[in-house]
Amino acid sequence: MSSPPPNLDANLAVALDALLTEQSVTRAAARLQTSPAAMSRTLARLRRALRDPLLVRAGQRMVPTPRAEALRDEAGAVVRRLEALLAPSGGIDPAALRRTFTVQTADLVGAAVTPGLTRLARQRAPGVSLRVLAEEWEAGPALRDGRIDLEIGAIDHVDPETCVEELVTLRMAAGVRAGHPLTEGTLTAARLAAAEHVAVSRRGRFTGPLDTALAAQGLSRRVSAVLPGHLAAMMLAAAENVVCLVPTALPGEPSSRLSDAAHALGLRLLEIPLPLPPLTIGMAWHPRHSVDGAHQWLRDAVRHVLRPTREE
């Protein structure tokens, strides 16, 4: 009956490569930062496992046996493969990427980020494609299940393990068309409340933080329409005398790309004379992607697009 296979481990392969390369127990021990005694015990294990002396004394030095000579190149190749297998993931070459990323975001954020992302992909990673989805799924489960790679927007309800990074903090402004009565004179809370408004809510809600701030002043507004996305609300405000809320940069900060659509539609952005909570835009991803080089490229690209420098 044949004997059971030897119980080998990766350390034995590394030791074998060192011994056959150095042809010296002392030098092999120094190479692997261990003691000569420990290396002698390892050589004994290798001799028993391979049933060959491997290294034999020839005067003042040790020489390899024919079996050792035959194993030398193969042992080195195995160690190199082990090193490549167990080495931390290195940087990637964006030009070599072949990947489709699925990003979930609101319409306004998608309109703000997609041109910059596709431009970066065209310039640096031509094999990358983007699939941008509306906010259809709850972010946590969709990220965990792999239905989406990245969520971009106002990140609130996520699973505990989800990674979240804040990108930019904005404030809300009142967007109106040129010639709207609110563009004349000082905008007061009372004048803002008296104007006709369009609200944005995927759930069809008529009220939000602006209504809370107005109520604190004893005021209320009339919302004539509720739309599911900011782009539709902006288009309505560009055509009619209604007010829509538009995210814009904080005072003293560079212009935000989330205001680009409003400017393209010719909207005037008026400062709201009420304390409203800031809007923080962030991105969320599942931790399994944290060290993935391709996903790191995507997150870097999103940072570049949504965190413009003052020179941009």
TrEMBL record:
It comes from the Bacteria. Belongs to the LysR transcriptional regulatory family. InterPro entries: LysR-type_TF (IPR050389), LysR_HTH_N (IPR000847), LysR_subst-bd (IPR005119), WH-like_DNA-bd_sf (IPR036388), WH_DNA-bd_sf (IPR036390). Keywords: DNA-binding, Transcription, Transcription regulation. The keyword Protease does not apply. The lineage of its organism: Bacteria, Bacillati, Actinomycetota, Actinomycetes, Micromonosporales. Pfam families: HTH_1, LysR_substrate. This is LysR family transcriptional regulator. Residues 8-65 form the HTH lysR-type domain.
